[in-house]
Amino acid sequence: MRPTRGLRRRRWSGAAILAAALLAFLPPAARAAATRDTAARVVTVAAARGLPVTGLRVVGAGTLASPLKAGLALAIPPLALGQRPLLFPRTLDEDLARARGFLARRGFPYARVTPEVRLNASGRDVSLVLSVTLGPAVILDRLDLAGFPPDLGADPAAAAGLAAGGVLTDPAVERAAAVLADLLRASGYADATVSARVSRLDSTRAALALAAVPGRRYRLGTLRVTGVSPDLEPLVRETASLPVGEIYSPVHLQRARDHLRLLDLFLQVRLRPAPARGDTLDMVADLRLRPAQSLEAGLGLWTDDLLRAQARWQHRNLLRRGRGVELSGAFSRYRTEGAAAAWWPALLGPRTRLETRVRGDEQNEDSYRLDEIEALVGLRWRPTLNNVLRVGIAVSRVDVHVRTPEAEAFLEQGGRLTVLAVDWNRDATDDRLFPRRGTRNWVHLEWGPHGGLSDAHFVLAQAQTAVFHALPGGPVAALRLLGGAATPTRGSEDLLPNRRFFSGGSASMRGYRRHRLGPRDDDGAPLGGESVVEMSVEMRFRLVWRLRGVLFWDAGQVWQNWEDTDLNDLAAAIGPGLTVDTPVGPLRADLGLRLDPADDGEPDMVFHLSVGQAF
Questions:
Q1: What average pLDDT is seen over the chain?
Q2: Which of 34, 400, 524, 574 is deepest in the core (most CB within 10 A)?
């Protein structure tokens, strides 16, 4: 055993010699710190002067630690990109003063903050620990209210949100004064102000007095309009829909702003009170028109449609009083479409719009060609900013030219078609192109009624929901569910091709090519079906530059008859995707790999290139 102990002593001596040699090359401040207690590596501020701060911790402050740290100069910003703040005595003193001031505003005026500088193992940077001793808090002993009129309709003390016995903080006092001022203004006191005064009763107790100066109570007067042509002034007044003579409230102004923004006529919408006349308060609408005309055009090569071209010209006020006109057209391998539309805003209310459209459509599919001329009249209503409801009636002439050799594929050959339709859309996401949170929902209903106006009779229902949820660290989980069913009704043998469901493609089930999932003829041409189910799960994450990655799982199926719908028949696919952010939206590439390949003539791996998110 002795030789072994001797060998260990010789090895330790060699390590000590090597450490002493390396220590000679350290900076003076780091060398001085390293010769002290190596476990703690605590150094003075002077010894660490000018070294980068690679970490800052706040201990002892509880839930106040994170907001306190966010306001310090020595804290590393979230987007620092490798840059680190440098430690200097003056910078540290300023941060300590900021920390004490922050804690005093949060009800702890006797808090102490003690810094500790620790030299990191490299000897070239430091970490900083701020130890907080909160001390006794200042407690609200009494709340006094003065000057509040009795006709507020709410208890000011309850609205203030301050209770005796709680910690008195500056943000809570400021918030209470702002809430009570808004309460007064909502009750017609447009010039109301609320001031706060804190009185120290002793070292740990204080009284708070909130004094209101409500001023005169006003009623709404007329609306003055500036910045628009005379033909638009009646539309602005009608759309703003301010209730003249009612008690003034900021809610009326916000509602009027929302109404005017929905007209899509203005780049700027500002509503403000005008100088009062007695107890009447007129409103002024300062508006700035957006360009009346716009032209959009696009040309692209995508895997679903190959070549796709589209153009749209719009005049927002061609027929005056906000009545606009739009001409549009689109061309691709499978579809050629042209349309002319016109609209009349605020026809039945500030958030309604009458829409008319004439459309010509030619669909060139492998199994059929369909020609349609359609005229539509509808009413759009937006009950909220993110909800749209449309109801309408469309009358069209449809001609179907069958290309499939299957005689029973398309029994209905077209004719006159009358359709009553209802659409509801709700977009509650935080971003239209790259949503991280929220939901999207839409429902589409159609009915082809019996009678002489229509040769095809059917009912159709389709709905989709999408949910987006941001995960810790940045990725976004996205989920989509879609379902639809349609059936011919009395007097019709089957559905027209443009009322059937198809699946497969870049915005559908990505394990299949466009429309290739579901019923097909002997040549592999899609025939469509009476019911469809699709679901998708995506994990979206940022890579570098403008690149984003996607991992997806898709499932779906189309059934020839809606009675045969069976979720056990769903086909599934997985795959990776890549998107590039561009000015027109994300350019997306997906590779779908089928999980249950079948001998159906379709490839087991499909590449998709398109613009926009899959959902």
A1: 90
A2: 400
Q: What mean pLDDT comes out for the span 115-139?
A: 93
Specify the pLDDT at position 22.
37
366 and 509 in a single domain? The answer is: yes
Evaluate whether 59 touches 130 at the Cβ level (below 8 Å): yes
Query: What pLDDT digit, counting tens, does each position of 549-586 carry?
Result: 999 999 999 999 999 999 999 999 999 999 999 887 89
Angle of CA points 452, 458, 463, to nearest 5°: 140
Contact 574, 538 (CB under 8 A): no
Q: How far apart are CA 273 and CA 245, in angstroms?
A: 14
Region 303-318: what's the mean pLDDT? 94
Joined together, the tokens standing for residue 487 give: 């059936």
Residue 399: closest CA among 370, 375, 419, 374: 370
pTM over 0.85, yes/no? no
Q: Which residues are registered as beta bridge partners of 1?
A: none
**Whole-angstrom distance, CA of residue 313 vs CA of residue 329:** 9
Evaluate if residue 36 carries a pLDDT over 70.
Answer: no
Reported as a pLDDT band with limits 50, 70 and 90, residue 532 is very high
Query: Domain limits at 244?
Result: 219-289
- Residue reference for tokens 């009284």: 207
Phi, psi at 497, each rounded to 5°: -60, -35
Q: Give 418-433 as a DSSP string.
A: EEEEEEEEEE--S-SS
Helical segments of 249-385, H only: 250-261
Angle at 546 between CA 465 and CA 479, to 5 degrees: 15
Cα–Cα distance list, 99 to 58, 70, 182, 505 (Å): 10, 10, 31, 57
Check whether 111 has a pLDDT greater than 50.
yes
Q: Is residue 311 in a domain? A: no
